[in-house]
Amino acid sequence: MAARQLKRTALVEDQWKRVRSRLRAELGEAAFRTWLRPLTLDGVSGTKVVLRVPGDNMKRWVMSRCGERLRDLWCGESDEITDIAITVGVPERRPKTREVRPLQRRPGTADGLTRVSRDVAGAATQLNPRFTFENFVIGETNHFAHRAAMDVADSNRVSYNPLYLYGSVGLGKTHLMNAIAWRIRTQRPERQGLFMSAEKFMTRFVHALRFKDTMAFKNEFRSVDVLMIDDIQFIADKASTQEEFLHTFNALADLNRQIVITADRAPSNLEGIDERLRSRLNGGVVALLRPADYALRLDILKNKLVHSIGEKRPGTDPEDVVPTAVLEFLATTITSNVRELEGALNRVVAHVHMVGQPVTLDSTRELLRDLLRAQERRVTVEEIQKMVADHFNLRLADMLSSRKERAIARPRQVAMYLVKRLTNRSLPEIGRRFGGRDHTTVMHGVRKIEELKAKDPALAEDVETLEHLLGQPQR
Question: Which residue would you say has higher pLDDT here, 474 or 290?
C-alpha cells in the first residue's frame, strides 16, 4: 500500500512539472514568474488536483486567466484527473504531494478550496460599514478630496497615481478610504482592492522576513488593482519597510494599478521618509482635508442626528430629540475635529435615551462641561517649542538640534513634557517633531521633568508659568 502511494506521489509530481513547463512556455517568463511560480502542488483529492497560492488576489488571477488551461493540461496528463481546486495560504512544512481526504464544503461557499491562512485573512483592515460615500457630508473644506476619491472608486482608468489624502485627525481621510473600498467591493467587484493601515503593512512585511516568505508577500501586494494604505506616516524611520513599500509602489505603478495613500501631513512635510518615496507620493494628486467650517460642522451634526434617531426611534422628528439651537451651539463650540463633534452629539443623544428629559442649552453645557473646557484652548507643538525657547532665551533651532549641553537639553525636555501633556501627539510623533529623536528619548525627557518638578522649585515654577502662558493652567 505504501509503495503504491509513493509511486502515485512521484507520478503526480512528474505530471505537475510538465504542466508548469507548458504554462511557462505559453505565458512567457515574466507572467510565469509573477503569477505562477508561487503556485504549488498541495495534493490530490479523489479526481481533483489541489493547488495552493499565497493570496486571494493571486487565486482570482490564476482562476480567471489560466484556470481552464490548467485543467485541460492536467486532464491531458492523467485520465484520473477531472478538475482542479485552489486553496489559499502558506504551504505547511510537509511533503509537497499527498493524498488528502475530500474536503466538506461549508454551506454557501463556492466550489474550490478557500482556506485562508490566519495571517492572510487578518492582513486587510476591517471596513467600517458607516464609512461610505453616501454617509460622507461634503463641504467647502473637503469637496476636492471627496471628488478625487469618487473618481478613483468609479473609474477603470488610472488618471493619477497616487491619490494622496492628508489632514489632521478626525477630518475624514479614513472615511474616504473606506468609501473607496466599499464602492469597489459592491459596484466593481472585478477590481481587486486591498485596504490596510501602514502599521499592518509593516507587520506583514516583518512576518514575511522572519519566516522567509517574502515572495508570497510581494505577490499578495503586487497583484491587486487598487492598493490603499492608511496613515503612511507610521513607517517613518522604518528604512526596510519603506524600501519594500517603494518597490511595491513602483511595481503597481508600472502595471498601471491605482494606489491611494492617507497621511496626517503633506508629502513634503513627512519626516523620516526616504526621498525617493517622498517624490513618488508627490507625483499624483495631493488633496488636503481642512478642518470643517461652521456650515459643514452643522450639516454633519444634522446628518448624524437623523441616522441616529432613525435607528433608535423610527418616525421621530430629530428636532424633538435635540433642538436645532443645541446643534448650532455644538457646531460653534467644538471646532477641533469631526470625531470629537460626533462624540459630543453621541453623548447628548445617549443622555436623552437614558434620562428621558428634553435637551436644553443649559443641560448640554453641563453634560459636556469637560469637553467644552478642553475646547477653550488648543495649543500646537510649534507654539510650545517657540514659547519654551523664548522663556529660556534659546533659538528655536536649538530645540531641534542634536546639542546635548544641559542649558539646551533641559529646556528641550521641558518642551517635550509640555507637548506630551498639552497635546494628543504620540511619543514617536513628538520625537520626530524634535529633530527626529526616538520615542524612548521623549519618554526619558518627560519622566525626567516629572521627577525634577518634585525636587526643583525653580523648574516647577518655570513649567507652571509656561503652562499658564500656553492657556492650560496647572491642574
Answer: 290
Mean pLDDT of 11-21: 84
Phi, psi of 115 (to 5 degrees): -75, 110
Question: How would you classify the pairing of strands 48-53 and 40-45?
Answer: antiparallel
Helix (H) or strand (E) holding 363, with range, is helix 361-367
Query: Which strands sit side by side in the sheet containing 258-263, from one edge to the other?
Result: 193-197, 226-230, 258-263, 163-166, 285-288
SS3 233: helix
pLDDT average, residue stretch 290-319: 79
Which whole number is the average pLDDT over 468-474?
56
CA-based max dimension of the chain: 90
Rg over alpha carbons for the chain, rounded to the nearest Å, is 28
Place of cell 474616504: 176
> Are 280 and 124 spatial neighbours (Cβ–Cβ below 8 Å)?
no
Q: Examine the pLDDT at 107 and tell me if it is beyond 50.
A: no
Residue 286: phi and psi, rounded to 5, are -105, 115
At 346 the three-state DSSP class reads helix
pTM for the complete prediction?
0.56
Residue-wise pLDDT tens digits, 139-161: 888 999 999 999 999 888 888 89
Query: Is cis: bond before 95, omega within 30 of 0?
Result: no
- Adjacent-strand bridge partners of 85: 50
Lowest mean pLDDT segment, chosen from 13-22, 47-56, 228-237, 292-301: 47-56
Full DSSP string of 253-318: HHTT-EEEEEESS-GGG-TT--HHHHHHHTTSEEEE-PPP-HHHHHHHHHHHHHHHHHHHSTT--H
Which residues pair with residue 99 across a beta bridge? 44
Query: What's the distance, CA 448 to chain centroid?
Result: 34
Beta bridge partner(s), residue 165? 262, 287
Query: What is residue 226's three-state secondary structure?
Result: strand
- Closest residue by Cα to residue 261 from 229, 289, 235: 229
Residue 185 clears pLDDT 60, i.e. is over it:
yes
Express as a percent the part of the chain with pLDDT over 70: 84
DSSP 38: T
